[in-house]
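Database export, one record per block. Field names are fixed; values are copied verbatim from the stored entry.
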Amino acid sequence: QEQEQEQEQERVPEAYKQRPYSRKKEQMKPWMLSTLAGPPVKKVQGFYPLSEFAVFKGLRQRPKPLIFNNDMFLSTNYYRRGWSLKAYRRLKNVIVVMDWVPDMDLLNDATGELKKRIGKGNANAVKAMGVGFEKLAQAFDKQFGTRTKQRGLTPAQEATLQRTFNLFDSAQTGTLSIKQLVEVLKTLDAVADTEEDVAELLKTVGRGHLTEVSFNDVKELVSNTDLHMHQNGRFYVALSLFEAEALRGVMHMRQKKDFLPEDPKTALALILPHHQGMVIDSTSGYKSAHRVQNESQVQSWRFFDSTMMYQEKEITTLLRAVQ
């Protein structure tokens, strides 16, 4: 007992390093609700990619951001990007995130229609961009259009897929049933929990009629299908509590009505990343993302908010999101 007391006395609590934290220019910057009918643009709503976030570390050190999924954004009212170059700032916790779809008909925008909606709801913002508008549209298309491009498998990936296929092909017939294919795709963390889900995926590569699949069928499916069903018309924005409160008030005012009367296809929800992405309020017509996309953003926000405790599956999801 004396030894334990001595060890307790030897422990010195870790002290936080004192910094000259600034509180200047913290007033909220308003943005027009109608602009939620268009995609996120800093000059329109004040939303910028989370991958551009960095903190000030000193005048001689350049801020270093961390790359996150490109559907994740920060509101300028949460943290202004320019602060990382000027002074130390205390960071707010990420409490509420907006899960936002500018147009439910463009959730899987493979034709670039979404970029045509840049600045929608705020003609003055578009006018202020002038000749820079076209460059902005091209940059948006480059950032989000890449999600729809298909890619082949590397030799290592193909070898891994072949081993997985052989593992489930216990009878060595060279084919798998749809039920077995469900299990194979689960190892790839695909959004295919049922045979009906797999049948829908097979239809995208012209094999929806099959009841058994060969390795080449599986290879074609994995190479040319987004198994995670990532919706490139959906965005997640970390809001200030003031913004979240204001949005929730509008939601309550327009219950059972279109959130944006002129753009009824716009939908959003306010979610809590520290509670498994629990929805606390949503507009009419809102539907949540598929499991993989939803889990990815939840774990990414938790990591961004300095959460330390993760289960093994959550760590795997996080590593896939940031690598």
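Remark 1: The first strand starts at residue 47 and ends at 49.
Remark 2: Residues 228 and 292 are 6 Å apart (CA to CA).
End of record.
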